[in-house]
Design goal:
The protein is of the alpha+beta class. It has one domain: Nuclear Transport Factor 2, Chain: A. 36% of the residues lie in helices and 36% in strands. The chain has a six-stranded mixed β-sheet with strand order 2-1-6-5-4-3.
Length: 207
């Protein structure tokens, strides 16, 4: 009985991590139908550029990718997943490093953004799917793709004052690329980050 319980926990954790991983792979590769299937239909997705349901998330991501050049697609590198199980509910928390390239004002830049994802899972009809995804943004950087190509004056004239310091380059890129910014952006060390973890604890408690 004990071994059976442990075996089921291992299976559940594997399936949960696989769903989170596949969702990131689909986001980068453009498999929009499969991306949406990683979420329950009534799920919510919250990122630096989107707040809404999975179907809309998949469609908006598709539109965004259609505007990008071949070398400008995102790469979400996922690591250190930690799963907490409680019956038919679970929380999968893991780190993400987003790599992307963008041409802005005629210059090619490489961007990196570090964040933590918190996926709230629920098992329905025997299948684990994401019920809510939240992102906690930690830090970022912006580098010329060709060192020495971008004059120092370009960086000197950048106005980043309206963005949180932790992700100012990330948000600058989004605005310059024509994306709208989320009204619910969460940065590390904020009260909103604390609220996300409190929500995860309540989720596991069945509230």
């Amino acid at each position: 009985m004990i071994e059976s319980f442990r075996d089921q926990a291992v299976i559940d954790k594997f399936e949960i991590i696989e769903v989170s991983t596949i969702s990131r792979w689909c986001r980068d590769s453009g498999d929009w139908a499969r991306l949406v299937e990683c979420f329950h239909p009534d799920a919510s997705v919250n990122t630096s550029w989107f707040n809404g349901g999975p179907s809309e998330f998949g469609e908006e991501a598709r539109k965004m990718m259609a505007k990008r050049r071949p070398m400008e697609g995102p790469r979400h590198i996922m690591g250190n997943p930690h799963v907490t199980l409680k019956g038919d509910r679970a929380v999968c928390e893991y780190t993400i490093i987003l790599y992307t390239q963008r041409t802005i004002d005629g210059y090619a830049f490489d961007f990196q953004t570090w964040n933590t994802a918190v996926d709230l899972f629920e098992k329905r009809n025997g299948e684990w799917r994401i019920s809510k995804r939240s992102q906690i943004y930690e830090k970022d950087r912006m580098d010329p793709h060709h060192p020495g190509e971008v004059p120092r004056s370009y960086f000197a004239q950048m106005d980043l004052s309206e963005y949180p310091a932790a992700v100012r380059y990330h948000l600058y890129r989004q605005v310059k690329s024509g994306q709208k910014l989320s009204k619910n952006l969460v940065v590390k060390g904020s009260p909103e980050e604390k609220a996300i973890h409190e929500e995860a604890a309540q989720w596991l408690a069945g509230r």
